[in-house]
Structures are given as C-alpha cells and as structure tokens.
Design brief:
Shape: globular
Largest sheet: 7 strands, parallel
Number of strands: 13
Order of helices and strands: EHEHEHEHEEEHEHEEHEHEEHHH
Oligomer: single chain
Distance between the termini: 8 Å
C-alpha cells in the first residue's frame, strides 16, 4: 500500500507528533511510505533527516492536496492535531483517511480517529480507537523487558518534559528537588527544541542527556519520574515507573491517561504550581514506598496488553486495507 503521513514539529507544537510518526512508519515499513512536513516548520525535516524514509515538504494545505491528487496514496494519516473539514474532505476524494488526536471538524469526516489521549465526542464510537491500549510507542519499548522489580528507595529520578518544554517545567522540577535537598541521581532528558539547561546551576547530582537512543533502558533505572502529559506518560507506564505529571498547557489538561490507574499522580497545570508546592509533592512521593509500589503495579497492569502490532492490525482492519 502507498501511505502518506502528514505531520510536523515545532517549538510551540512539540515533538510528540514526529516521534509517533516515526514509530508508526517503522511498524508500516513493508508499505510505501511518504512523510509530509510543513516547509515553515524545519524541526520536523531536521528530525527525519536521520531516518531512511522518504520525506517531502509542502508550503500549505493546497500544495499537500495537489500532492495527494498526483500520487494517489491508498491511505493518508494526519498527525497534526485539529484538521479542517475542507482538508480532510479534499483528501477523501482520493484516499482513505485516518487521523490522530483530532478534535477539529476534519475528524468527523475521517474514516478512523485514533485518540489514545482523549475521546472526540463528535465522532461515532465505531470510528474511534481510544485509550492507552491504542497508544503507538517507539519499537524499543516492545523489545526491552518491562521492569518487574520495585525498590523502596528512590536513588534515580528521571526528568522528562517533552521535545520543547515551553513552560520550562524541567527547571521548576530541578529547583523543587534542590529544595528538598535530594541526594540521589537526577537524569534530565532535553529534546531537540528545548532550551538548554546547565547542570552546574543546580545543587544536584545531574546527568544532562539529549538525543537518547534507548529511552526504555534509561527509564528502567528510575524509581520516580517527572513528566508532562504527552505520550511519555504511556512510555513510563509501560516501564512501571511511578510518575508525577505537570501539564505544559491547557490542552494537556484534557488528556485522560494521567491517572493513578496508569501509575500517574496528576499535579495539574505546571505553570500554576509553585516550586515549594512541587517540592512537597516530591518529598511525599519519595518518602512513601507504598504509594510508589501501588503506582508501579497499576502502570504495568494497565499497559500489559498494549503493542504496536495490535494497533496497526486494528487500524488496517477498520479501514479494510
């Protein structure tokens, strides 16, 4: 099958869409794949330059529709958030359409909506795949054994706030760890679009990382994580890591996977919580092994049946491809 995936990355948009697109096209690698990116958002092209997939850029929706009309893919996948009815309607004249995390009017016209983070009330249930079991993750989360052991002591804290961290929540988390005089190890992962942080600015044992190739192995070492409310939450759940979640923006506050059932304590909008309040939450979590064990076990239970292969099979079955 010929498949187009329309996606983007930018400071304001984050990196989650391109990371999921990468996992999606890797799972669909036996098909003829084209990744289509916006010319005015170069972060996406920079990301895919390291991978062997065909990637092209378009200036706007009109140029994208022209490309679809010219090449006539069997399936067009949108991973851009909210699509317009005009865009999806035009593409449907040529191809079947699936869309991810879409609350726009285009989702109502699509053949299938995959919305693992939230439900779209305007789309019929039979045209939606929802919930954490429909979350597509990097393939190495399926090749590395899930962490089964639990330790009472927190020796390693992992700080992950997406590819861009627009609300600077990593800095706030490090200041909170400083406040409680945390003496263990702290690993901070910074994405391509995030402002750099200097380990020397904090009185902590910090390791700063970027462009991490094996995130599951890194997560395996952590007894506690701090994260925003994107797909990283599902990754941490798959590895059984208890997580404190701070949303980057109001959109992330609508995500439905940041629950105790998935191993997560949702603390709300990150910009609204003070360093002092976050420090109190951190101290409570670190000093409460019973709570962390409960979160650990809930996370592993919630993600036990999830796999990319199962999700791809569901997508292709619903679309009859």
């Amino acid at each position: 099958r010929k498949i187009f995936v329309r996606t983007d990355a930018a400071k304001s948009l984050g990196m989650g869409h391109v990371y999921r697109t990468l996992a999606l096209v890797q799972a669909l690698a036996r098909h003829e794949i084209t990744i289509v990116l916006s010319a005015d958002k170069p972060l996406g092209a920079q990301f895919f330059a390291d991978y062997p997939f065909r990637a092209v850029q378009v200036s706007d929706d009109t140029e994208f529709i022209q490309l679809v009309e010219k090449e006539k893919p069997d399936l067009v996948v949108f991973d851009q958030l909210d699509t317009s009815a005009e865009l999806v309607g035009s593409v449907k004249n040529q191809s079947k359409v699936a869309t991810f995390e879409d609350l726009g009017p285009g989702a109502e016209l699509a053949d299938l909506l995959i919305a693992d983070l939230y439900n779209n009330p305007n789309v019929a249930d039979e045209k939606q795949l929802t919930g954490i079991e429909n979350s597509i993750l990097a393939p190495n989360f399926e090749s590395l054994p899930r962490k089964a052991e639990f330790t009472d002591e927190v020796q390693n804290v992992l700080v992950l706030f997406g590819g861009t961290d627009p609300a600077q929540l990593a800095d706030k988390s490090l200041r909170a760890l400083e406040t409680i005089k945390y003496a263990g190890n702290v690993t901070v992962v910074r994405g391509l679009g995030a402002d750099p942080l200097n380990a020397g600015d904090y009185k902590l044992n910090i390791q700063m990382l970027s462009n991490v190739k094996n995130m599951p192995a890194l997560m395996q070492q952590a007894q506690l994580a701090l994260s925003s409310a994107g797909r990283t939450i599902t990754e941490l759940s798959c590895m059984g890591v208890p997580t404190l979640c701070l949303a980057q923006n109001a959109k992330e506050m609508t995500h439905t996977h940041t629950t105790k059932d998935n191993g997560v304590l949702m603390l709300g909008l990150g910009s609204a919580i003070s360093v002092e309040d976050l420090a109190t939450k951190l101290e409570n979590a670190i000093s409460n092994p019973e709570l962390r064990k409960q979160l650990h076990e809930s996370a592993l239970r919630a993600t036990a049946e999830r796999s990319n292969a199962k999700i791809i099979d569901r997508i292709m079955h619903v679309l009859e491809l």
